[in-house]
Every structure is written in C-alpha cells, then in structure tokens.
Design goal:
This protein is mostly helical. It has a single domain, classed as ABC transporter involved in vitamin B12 uptake, BtuC (Orthogonal Bundle), CATH 1.10.3470. The chain has 14 helices and two strands, in the order H-H-H-H-H-E-E-H-H-H-H-H-H-H-H-H. The chain has a two-stranded antiparallel ribbon.
C-alpha cells in the first residue's frame, strides 16, 4: 500500500472515530443527561425507558444524523466548486448559491404562508422544498458564472465579487419577504435563515436522503474529472475531456446537494470553504482520496457547531450557522491574505 493510501485510510479512521465520539457526547449531554447504559438500552431495545426513547429518537438522534448529512454534503459541494473554478476561496455560502437556494425557499414560504409549517407532518411539503432550493441555487449559479466569465473563461476575482453581490442581493430579498410574513411564519423563516437544525425530524432526513444517494456516487465517479480541472482547459480538451459538459454536470451536482442541505438547515456557510483545504492537507489533491475525507470533515464541523450552539447558553440556543461563521470568517480572511501574498 502506497503512502497516499495509508494517509487516506488513516484520515478516514481518525475522522470516523471523532464523529462517533462527538455523536456520543451530543446524545448524552443536554438538559436531559443520559448515561452510556441508557443510550445502549434504548438503541438496542433492551428495557428502554419512555423518557429516554423520546429524547433520543424524537430530538437528539434526528438532529445528529441531519447534522452529519448536511456537513457531508456541504463539504463535498465546496470541494467541487473550488475545483471547477480553480479558486480556493470558492464556497457555496460566499458565492451566493446558498442564498439563491434560500431566497427561493423563503419565497415558497412567503407565497404559501399559513399553509406551510415545518412542524406539520406533511411529507409532500418536506419533499418539495429541496426541489425549490435546487431551482433557486441553480439560477443563482447561472447568474454568477455568466457574469464572472471573461472571454469564455472564469475570472477568479470576478467570481468572488459577483458571488458576494448575489449573496447580498438574495439575502436582502429573503429578509424582505420574511418581514412581510405572519408572525408564526416569520419566526420559522428567521430561525431558518440563520442556519439551524433545531427542528430536525425524520422526515427532513427522508427528504434529503434520495438526493445524497443519487448525487454522491455520481460525484465520486467523476473524481478523475475533478482532478483534471487543476489543468488548463486547453490541456483538458487535448486529453479528450468535454470541459463545458463536465463543468455544468458537476455544477448541477453541487447545486443539487446544496439545495437539499439548505432546505433543511438554512444557510450554513464556511463548511464548504474550510473542509476542502483541510482534506488536501491530510490526503493530497487527488479527489478520489479527498472527497470522502472532505465530507467527513464537514460532518465533524457541523456536529461540533450544533453541539456548541445547543449547550453553551442552554436552555437557549445559538444557531449552528452563527458558530460556524465565528470560526470561518477569520479563516476566510487568512486565505484571502495568503492568496494575495
């Protein structure tokens, strides 16, 4: 086994161990403290207690699973965007794709306010929202990539500036529509806009799981194409790669994952920025090795941010999106300064 594979397997094992550890800490801590024995008895159905079952299966476990999925998806989406744009500062949140998906979902909430309630067990509504997010994210991505093109090539500086502008515009539009909502719908939209999974349930997991099962294997199969995007486009064409086709296919995959994640967690930023950089430090630049590592790093970030937000000011909560922004904003500034140097 070569050195690169050893590093990949070691990174995967360490990250999975950390995720399991943080998962156990999240399951056992909170307003209602659970022991290891309580958790094992409840999960394996060995003399489970009613209160323990309620806390685990209705509140904590769906939230933890959703955090893992959202972090995994945003981490991989960030890796795709950084590869196809050849820009280490690319991130679903910074480029405005999160905001585009979010604005579309808030518009859906706005036009169907009173009928739409995230706490109502309506499977049709829960399954429809990721499609709305996909549509909004893809429209935002189209606008960004169209405006950032310079002679059929993506200009990195234009990409970031356009993304910031789209992010600001879509965020303002979403806020305007949320202010026009009824009180109950506004509260739901405001919490969602800050990036939170506090109201996670099993239906949310069911709504995004098909997107992951469909898109993630396709992305992994295209890992070699992502490697080739590190080359010049003329070289890629010389190797027989249909550059535009691959670019738009991978972009659609990234937006699909982002739309699904945003539909259940709101706008979560900086996971897609930090995870690819850390994955490359651990296992190198080959996407065959780094994609899953990148996703697991995103899952770990999301789990830790949600746990901190849930416990640091308990019984109140701080949105996971706010915690990640506190961590991610200085890292973005560091990368910006490093890039200029």
């Amino acid at each position: 086994m070569d050195k690169e594979k050893k590093r990949t397997y070691l990174s995967l094992c360490v990250l999975i161990c950390f995720i399991v550890l943080v998962t156990f800490i999240s399951l056992s801590n909170g307003e209602y403290i659970l022991s290891f024995q309580d958790i094992v008895k409840s999960i394996f159905r060995y003399h489970p207690a009613g209160d323990t079952d309620l806390v685990l299966f209705q509140f904590r476990l769906p939230r933890i699973i959703l955090a893992i999925l959202v972090g995994f998806g945003l981490g991989i989406a960030g890796s795709i965007l950084q590869s196809i744009t050849k820009n280490g500062l690319a991130d679903p949140g910074i480029l405005g794709i999160n905001s585009g998906a979010g604005a579309a979902i808030v518009a859906y909430m706005f036009f169907f306010q009173g009928m739409l309630n995230m706490n109502v067990d309506s499977l049709w509504i829960v399954l429809t929202i990721p499609l709305i997010g996909l549509f909004g994210g893809f429209i935002a991505a189209l606008i960004i990539f169209f405006l950032a093109k310079d002679r059929e090539r993506l200009d990195s500086q234009k990409l970031i500036l356009t993304g910031i502008a789209i992010n600001s515009g879509c965020g303002s539009l979403a806020m305007y529509m949320s202010l026009k909502m009824k009180a109950q719908d506004f509260e739901m939209a405001a919490v969602w806009l800050n990036g939170s999974i506090y109201n996670a349930n099993w239906q949310f997991i069911l709504s995004i799981l098909p997107w992951f099962l469909l898109i993630i294997p396709l992305i992994i199969r295209r890992a070699y194409s992502l490697d080739l995007f590190q080359l010049q486009e003329t070289v890629m064409i010389g190797l027989g790669v249909k550059v535009e086709k691959e670019k738009w296919l991978l972009l659609l995959c990234a937006v699909g994952i982002i739309g699904a994640c945003v539909s259940v967690s709101g706008s979560i930023g900086f996971i897609g920025l930090m995870s690819p950089h850390l994955a490359r430090l651990l296992v190198g630049r080959k996407h065959r090795n780094s994609l899953i590592v990148c996703g697991l790093i995103g899952s770990l970030f999301m789990l830790i941010a949600d746990f901190i937000g849930r416990t640091i000011v308990a019984p109140a909560e701080i949105s996971a999106g706010i915690i990640l922004s506190i961590i991610g904003a200085p890292y973005f500034v560091y990368l910006l300064v490093k890039t200029r140097v």
